[in-house]
Amino acid sequence: MVRINGENMDMAGKTVAEYLAESRYDLKRVAVERNGRIVPRAEYGETVLADGDCVEVVGFVGGG
Amino acid sequence: MLPTRDEMRRAQEARHGAALQEKFSAAAVAVCGLGGLGSNLAVALARAGIGKLILIDFDRVDVTNLHRQQYKAAQVGRYKTDALAENLREIAPYVELEPHCVRMTEENAAGLLREADVVCEAFDDAGCKAMLAGAVLERMPEKYLVAASGMAGLGSANEIRTRRLTDRFYLCGDGISDVEEAGGLFSSRVMLCAAHQAHAVLRILAGESDV
């Protein structure tokens, strides 16, 4: 299981890019943190989620 | 008669403590976007006696900004960098200001932010927020980022909070209230979020890394 934004999800083995696409995130509006570190945008496709990972996807919304 | 630099410094030391004021005075903080978030948090940081504020915005003051942004009606039409610098100098005449009237991009971000210890993301556009977050967090690992997402609408004040996502990435707001869906922006809720950001900056400079 991978903990994503506070929820346990069956996403081990998928890449960050696959998770973001399945969850319909707009890639131009996100920042991804995994186990306390930022995942660089260029590495979404090669970063494979593993059991026990803790991930936070920030989907920025407008307003300021 | 304006208070002298020494008088203002002593007054800040009396409120904040000399050791903490030394840290605030030595810091450079960048404010990226001078709208509802940026203009309000810049006022808080100037009052706190931050040594240097780097102010970045390409836009002019519009009449539709006055309901939540720290500008005056007579400043409509002026560049926000000029208008905010003027207002900040009235409040805190000895804060060093470095205004940049320019649209921030991935290409110019590193140059604009070179001297900043802490970067405040205060844009209104979600894509710009993510762009700056990526630029700072991926390529400027020595800097702190205090970003904001979700402060639109008339939702509860108590939903606005500060979270720490990595050791150098703080995020303020409710995380969900999009201006496109939440029905506008209200000065009080935007100011709450700006205050969260300003407070996160002061805590970072004080060495209080938790939120």
Number of separate domains of chain A: 1
Number of discrete helical segments of chain B: 7
- Enumerate the strands of the largest sheet of chain B in spatial order, edge to edge or round the barrel: 3-2-1-4-5-7-6
CATH fold annotation of chain A? Ubiquitin-like (UB roll)
Radius of gyration of chain B: 16 Å
Full CATH superfamily name of chain B: NAD(P)-binding Rossmann-like Domain
Here the CATH topology of chain B equals: Rossmann fold
Q: What is the N-to-C succession of helices and strands of chain B?
A: HHEHEHEHEHEEEH
Indicate the radius of gyration of chain A in whole angstroms.
Answer: 11 Å
Side-by-side strand order of the widest sheet of chain A: 2-1-5-3-4
- Overall average residue pLDDT of chain A: 97
Characterization of the model:
The complex is a heterodimer of chains A (64) and B (211). Chain A has a single domain, classed as Beta-grasp domain (Ubiquitin-like (UB roll), Roll). Helices cover 11% and strands 30% of the residues of chain A. Chain A is built from one helix and five strands, in the order ββαβββ. The longest helix of chain A has 7 residues. Chain A is globular and about 35 Å long. The mean pLDDT of chain A is 97. In chain B, 48% of the residues are buried. Chain B has 211 residues and is of the alpha/beta class. The mean pLDDT of chain B is 97. A seven-stranded mixed beta sheet of chain B has the order 3-2-1-4-5-7-6, sandwiched between helices. Chain B has seven helices and seven strands; from the N terminus they run H-H-E-H-E-H-E-H-E-H-E-E-E-H. Classes of the chains: A mainly beta (64), B alpha/beta (211). Chains A and B meet through strand 3, strand 4 and strand 5 of A and helix 3 and helix 6 of B.
